[in-house]
Amino acid sequence: xxxxxxxxxxxxxxxxxxxxxxxxxxxxxxxxxxxxxxxxxxxxxxxxxxxxxxxxxxxxxxxxxxxxxxxxxxxxxxxxxxxxxxxxxxxxxxxxxxxxxxxxxxxxxxxxxxxxxxxxxxxxxxxxxxxxxxxxxxxxxxxxxxxxxxxxxxxxxxxxxxxxxxxxxxxxxxxxxxxxxxxxxxxxxxxxxxxxxxxxxxxxxxxxxxxxxxxxxxxxxxxxxxxxxxxxxxxxxxxxxxxxxxxxxxxxxxxxxxxxxxxxxxxxxxxxxxxxx
Length: 277
Hints:
The protein is mainly alpha-helical. The protein has eleven helices and six strands.
């Protein structure tokens, strides 16, 4: 992975301008589609964006200079480097990343259903402030993004930190990538996964997993599982320690959602039940 990181470093500065072509819209469909779109980047766009990057960074290595001169054949090499980096640095941790993203999406979806677009925008992290009709954001530079009748795509990101980011080119589809919530380190000892999973045996926790749906608060969980509020909170803690639930704080309440592991456990249980009956 160190070799890929060194090769990518000139294209991905730790601060400042970041070429838009590295994050194609097709990335929403998965890594394969994203790399396919990257390979089709027009020569003119490569020259424009890499020339802008070169003016604010150290000299490029020869293979990046070739792309900056419009040689699209080098894009195949770049796609291969990105694929290898993804497999080494991201794929092994993807269930954890996906769990955080799904928890954030559940929280935003709940806000949208409860209060429409205003509630959704007001629920975004503290570095973004909704003052209708303007969404103010802490941002590395001073800039305005005018939608001009276009929609705004909100993308929660596990790797985005401190401030949201958007495309440099205002003509591209308006996208705002913002950081998901990262919980503070636990001060109490982490429960061993094997021990936590052993404590899962029982009808109540099975009912909680099956009734959590796309996300619910502790009080809703208590009603759905027909247990007391204290019991629902205790069971949710055990499930969270086992890596089957994520808990995201929303004001004075918390929102529980299934992790990919929890969802997989439910799918497996249902498959067994269908096979038996």
